[in-house]
Amino acid sequence: MSKIEKLQQNKMKNYDHLAVVKLAPFVTNVQLNRPQQRNALNGNLWQEIGDCFNFLASDPDTRVVDVQSV
């Protein structure tokens, strides 16, 4: 699998504990979305954060990442 195919596959990925939204050109919002656990960080959430930020680091359409919690 090429790097481009891997990026495209990751771009389509839905996260269980993150909500990722483009707010404006070059601005992406990442929300921690585990309100019933008060957004406590667990292994699954850390994995999703890592996957998401690895993708955003190589995304030419993202220059700013705004991180929030729900």
From TrEMBL:
<dbReference type="InterPro" id="IPR029045">
    <property type="entry name" value="ClpP/crotonase-like_dom_sf"/>
</dbReference>
<dbReference type="GO" id="GO:0005739">
    <property type="term" value="C:mitochondrion"/>
</dbReference>
<dbReference type="InterPro" id="IPR045002">
    <property type="entry name" value="Ech1-like"/>
</dbReference>
<dbReference type="GO" id="GO:0051750">
    <property type="term" value="F:delta(3,5)-delta(2,4)-dienoyl-CoA isomerase activity"/>
</dbReference>
<comment type="similarity">
    <text>Belongs to the enoyl-CoA hydratase/isomerase family.</text>
</comment>
<protein>
    <submittedName>
        <fullName>Enoyl-CoA hydratase</fullName>
    </submittedName>
</protein>
